Amino acid sequence: MNNTEKFSVVLPVFNEQDNLQSLFAEIRSAADATGRPWEAVFVDDCSTDNSLSIIRGLADEYSEVRYVAFAENRGQSAAFCAGFDAAESDIVVTMDADLQNDPADIPDMLAVFGSECEMVIGWRAKRKDTFIKRISSKIANAIRDGLMDDGVHDTGCSLKVMRTDLLRSLPRFKNMHRYFPILMKMQGARIKEVKVNHRERATGVSKYGTLDRAMAGIYDLIGVKWLINRHIEYTVKEKK
Predict the structure, then answer these.
(1) 99/235: higher pLDDT
(2) Domains detected in the chain
């Protein structure tokens, strides 16, 4: 991969007003350190706090900042998809806006991307979530791995680097962001993992409970398993 190629950092946002200024400062520092052109695409999922106003201010001050603002709350997957559609580069970096993902990991992940892979996934080897959240995640991962093997340690880490064209060709549905690895593999992507830093949430509140996430996860697993089993693949022998 060309190490001067532009990349887009896509960030879904819902009520993260206290994190956005610090988050962008960290992204800017990490992105500038790569020596590449870059942009940050914020997608506001109809926040009810001052998140959108802060994003507008960042866009006015920094040419690298662009944004999409939803008219109604549509969820994280929809926000990611809107960011993919708005990205003006061939490489997308995804991350959460809660400051638990560390932008300082971006340069190392970009360095791995393109070296016989089309997707790089962050692996939170030392998670800083609550005990309940860690346990529920382990249970969910075990169930998911039993039904579909995506070959990665940490599917739930939002910090990823992916090819834009493959992302735009993925089937779109609610909670699809939890299945990016297997969906990308269905598009032919090769995946590598990089251990990344994970931080405690300093401000704001988690947008997910354990029970609602578990119930949605079971429903999604059935649908994704069906999608995998019905996936069409073919090899062209010749054509004219």
Answers:
(1) 99
(2) 7-229 (3.90.550.10)
